[in-house]
Q: What sequence folds into this?
């Protein structure tokens, strides 16, 4: 439940702290005193959109903190899902700087505004005067019925299976579309693949052929250069190898006469051996430098074929051509297996459809059973609110198709007058009737502990007298199941509360502030007397207030 609300620099509120108790509380005060500001601040800290105009002092930041006591069994999984540390006492904090930058925290951990809102929606339900119109919304009606039927786990399971079914259906549609549209394309791909496979492409061959052809095209010059090199090294009278051999013999003789030259002989001998190896390699290259014209023609034809294929398929180099062949082969293979994929996907879709059909049937059964008791309980309450002939009925119709919430169409039907058949709420219920109907529904739903804190913003507008007293009784009963806070102008409602807060405005000569305080018993008598007598407290009003409080 909501334990405390701290507000700083929010519109007319400079610095305010409100500590709430359990059960039923009311907030009263003059029109414009700031009751809506209190709810606005609470909505702000729970994730509603911020407005820079809320800053009363434009030089200071606005800070709103809400402290909650939580039940671990109910809320720890929610915190775990959002990767937040759970504590039994939880603090929401929202800040807005003068630069219009908003920051949000849960237990001092920074969170996104969406996370703040998602978790906050599970802690507090703020019901404004206009929210009664939600009753005309089909999704809201279904949500309420599922709350009564306690369908949370079953509905979660259904939604997961339904999402899989939707994905399977989409995949099947894609496969069938591909099978219909891509038949001609596949024929073309097969033609391309056949052409590439006949070419028997080999990795690296294009570069090898290109290098070989380059050698062949320069064969005469290569042969001349090799012959010249061989002549200089070994195939002439003045060849380097012959002269180097004579130098080795000379140094060998010199070594016997001048031992210091022994190292020179060794170095020249090493060069002589190396030059012999070079001479051998040059001779080998010269012998292999003769090229077969027929071989050159075959290589040229192969090179031209590979070049044409690269140009035809608009690729920049040979590796890209190999990659294209692999890609086309995969596409052709996938298409050839598409019939098998369609059959397999159809089988999976059929099995998944059977599963969600069973889950949808369970949802329908639980909703139908819950609807009977729900409409009975709501009708009993509505009839006590000056609508003795009211009829509230819930229609749960099983549809032939599935949606994210099952296969049911839920409609809330209502009639406030005897002899008039119940019809869709949006067609037959007036604003005042909607408010009383919504209060009755919320009262019934509250018995399931669907949310810890419920706040009504003048849901009792437009009623008075005995009906107002009955509204107060209903709200007091709701306070036994949850924390209920109601902003009201009705003394009959205010008198039923366990806690009575009074909100008022004051000024320091320069600016106006909103304040709130918890009234004691004597102050409550005076405040309710004012509400009974339009602010003029008479002895009769005081006496009537005491009677109401008793």
A:
């Amino acid at each position: 439940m909501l334990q405390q609300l701290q507000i700083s620099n929010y519109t007319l509120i400079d610095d305010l702290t409100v500590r709430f108790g359990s059960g039923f509380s009311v907030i009263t005060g003059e029109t414009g005193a700031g009751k809506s500001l209190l709810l606005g601040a609470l909505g702000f800290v729970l994730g509603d959109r911020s407005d820079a105009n809320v800053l009363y002092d434009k030089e200071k930041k606005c800070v709103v903190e809400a402290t909650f006591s939580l039940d671990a069994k109910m809320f720890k999984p929610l915190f775990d899902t959002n990767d937040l540390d759970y504590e039994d006492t939880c603090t929401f904090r929202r800040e807005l700087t003068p630069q219009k930058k908003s920051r949000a925290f849960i237990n001092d951990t920074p969170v996104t505004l969406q996370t703040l809102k998602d978790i906050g929606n599970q802690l507090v339900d703020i019901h404004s005067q206009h929210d009664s119109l939600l009753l005309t919304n089909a999704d809201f009606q279904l949500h309420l019925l599922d709350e009564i039927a306690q369908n949370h786990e079953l509905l979660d399971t259904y939604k997961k299976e339904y999402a899989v079914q939707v994905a399977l259906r989409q995949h099947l549609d894609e496969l069938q579309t591909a099978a219909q549209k891509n038949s001609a394309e596949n024929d073309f791909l097969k033609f391309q693949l056949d052409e590439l496979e006949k070419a028997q492409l080999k990795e690296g061959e294009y570069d090898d052929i290109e290098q070989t052809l380059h050698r062949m095209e320069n064969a005469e010059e290569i042969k001349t250069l090799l012959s010249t090199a061989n002549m200089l090294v070994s195939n002439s009278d003045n060849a380097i190898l012959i002269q180097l051999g004579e130098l080795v013999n000379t140094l060998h003789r010199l070594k016997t006469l001048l031992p210091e030259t022994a190292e020179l002989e060794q170095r020249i001998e090493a060069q002589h051996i190396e030059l012999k190896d070079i001479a051998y390699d040059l001779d080998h290259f010269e012998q292999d430098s003769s090229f077969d014209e027929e071989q050159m023609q075959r290589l040229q034809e192969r090179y031209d074929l590979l070049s044409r294929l690269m140009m035809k398929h608009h690729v920049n180099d040979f590796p890209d051509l190999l990659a294209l062949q692999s890609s086309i082969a995969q596409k052709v293979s996938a298409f050839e297996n598409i019939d098998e994929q369609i059959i397999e996907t159809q089988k999976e879709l059929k099995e998944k459809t059977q599963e969600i059909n069973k889950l949808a049937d369970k949802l329908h059964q639980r909703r139908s059973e819950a609807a009977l008791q729900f409409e009975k309980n709501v009708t009993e309450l509505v009839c006590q609110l000056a609508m003795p002939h009211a009829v509230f009925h819930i229609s749960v119709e099983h549809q032939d198709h599935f949606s994210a919430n099952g296969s049911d169409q839920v409609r809330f039907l209502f009639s406030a007058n005897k002899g008039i058949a119940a019809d869709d709420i949006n067609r037959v219920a007036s604003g005042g009737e909607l408010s009383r109907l919504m209060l009755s529904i919320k009262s019934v739903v509250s018995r399931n502990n669907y949310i810890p804190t419920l706040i009504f913003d003048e849901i009792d507008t437009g009623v008075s007298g005995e009906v107002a007293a009955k509204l107060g009784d209903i709200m007091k009963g709701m306070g036994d199941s949850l924390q209920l806070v109601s902003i009201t102008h009705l003394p009959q409602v205010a008198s039923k509360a366990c806690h009575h807060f009074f909100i008022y405005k004051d000024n320091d000569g320069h600016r106006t502030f909103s304040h709130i305080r918890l009234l004691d018993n004597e102050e409550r008598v005076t405040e309710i007397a004012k509400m009974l007598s339009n602010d003029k407290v008479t002895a009769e009003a005081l006496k009537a207030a005491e009677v109401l409080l008793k």
